[in-house]
Write a structure and sequence with these properties.
Elements: E1 2-5, H1 11-24, H2 36-43, E2 50-55, E3 61-69, E4 78-85, H3 94-108, E5 113-120, H4 124-132, E6 136-147, E7 151-161
Parallel strand pairs: 4-5
Antiparallel strand pairs: 1-2, 2-3, 3-4, 5-7, 6-7
């Protein structure tokens, strides 16, 4: 697996699984009816932020991550990131590789920590992955997310010092 900078040419491969994940309404706080153009603008970030794709040896996109500063101004020393793995490629270490990549990117860019603002508490795979990579749950917004099947569930704030 190779992780490389994402380009606009990757968007046609990202969009189908991005759309399915967002439309399912189970893990992201994005509007479920987000248009293809809006989604591309939100996901493919300009420098100094970064968006990457994980590809296999045939060049097929397996997943993607975006990384950015979490806040502006005096809070700009904390990074954040978001991840999407094509469900057809789940369970192959793509999410872990992307997460490890973003942590190293943030460290190399001089960020002091990473913070995830809205990890849905019922997203057990993500919570487990982040914890295994040294992230801690530093707070939970009770009923901060309206899950389509489980109703109102918490949103974790997760943090890792770099």
């Amino acid at each position: 697996m190779l992780i490389r900078e994402a380009t606009a040419e990757d968007w046609p491969a990202i969009w189908p699984f991005f759309h399915d994940i967002v439309a399912a309404g189970e893990t992201f706080t994005y509007p479920e009816d987000l248009s293809r153009e809006q989604a591309q603008d939100w996901w493919l970030l300009a420098e100094p932020n970064r968006t990457v794709v994980a590809v296999d040896d045939t060049g097929s996109v397996l997943g993607t991550a975006k990384m950015n500063r979490n806040h502006m101004g005096n809070g700009s020393h904390i990074a954040s990131a978001s991840y999407m793995v094509d469900p057809e490629h789940s369970g192959r270490g793509v999410g872990r590789a992307l997460c490890e990549y973003t942590v190293e990117w943030a460290r190399a860019q001089g960020y002091r920590a990473m913070q995830f603002n809205a990890v849905v508490e019922t997203n057990f795979h993500a919570v487990g992955l982040y914890r295994s990579l040294g992230f801690d749950i530093i707070g939970t917004l009770p009923e901060g997310f309206n899950h389509p099947a489980k109703g109102y569930v918490g949103l974790h704030i997760m943090h890792k010092a770099l």
